[in-house]
Amino acid sequence: MSREVASTQSSTKPLMSEMMSAGVYKRNQGRLVRQLTCLTVWVVIALGCWRLYETLKGDERAWLVLGVPGALLLVGLWVGYRLVNWPRFADFLIAVEAEMNKVSWPSKTEMIRSSVVVIFTIFFLAIALFGFDLAWQWMFEQLGVAA
Asked: Which one is predicted more confidently, 44 or 55?
């Protein structure tokens, strides 16, 4: 095994060993994307736990109704936090934020003008296709192909 491969493998920890640490990987890089990703994961986990709670609500065992969704929520929140600090995934999110910062976003007036052009084009094409459909329908009826 070459030195490059060995150093690459030793520098990236597997996900399961990353789950047991509490450090923040590259703290100041890609903060916004990482925070939004973590928030999204947390919302999905919270909705899943709430749905599980609603499903178990009729059971008379209180520890099951509250304990299982609560434990899953805590584990899920920790996994979501650790996932955005996993070096492989964090580097991807950092790269995403760097690329998004390179994008030149249009101004409000340019966006409105572009939207009007797209909407007009869609309506024009819909009307044109409707006209072609009527023309072909008339032609096939004259030929006796369509009923």
From this structure: 44
pLDDT-derived band at 6, boundaries 50, 70, 90: very low
Residue 114 to residues 24, 81, 110, 111, 119, Cα–Cα distance (Å): 42, 39, 6, 5, 9
CA distance 6 to 15: 18
Task: Tell me the C-alpha distance between 144 and 147, whole Å.
Answer: 7
Cβ 90 vs Cβ 30: under 8 Å: yes
CA distances from 131 to 14, 33, 134, 142 (A): 60, 47, 5, 17
Whether the predicted model's global pTM rises above the 0.70 cut: no
DSSP for the chain reads --HHHHHHHHHS--HHHHTT----TTTTSSHHHHHHHHHHHHHHHHHHHHHHHHHHTT-S-HIIIIIHHHHHHHHHHHHHHHHTTSHHHHHHHHHHHHHHHH--PPPHHHHHHHHHHHHHHHHHHHHHHHHHHHHHHHHHHHHT---
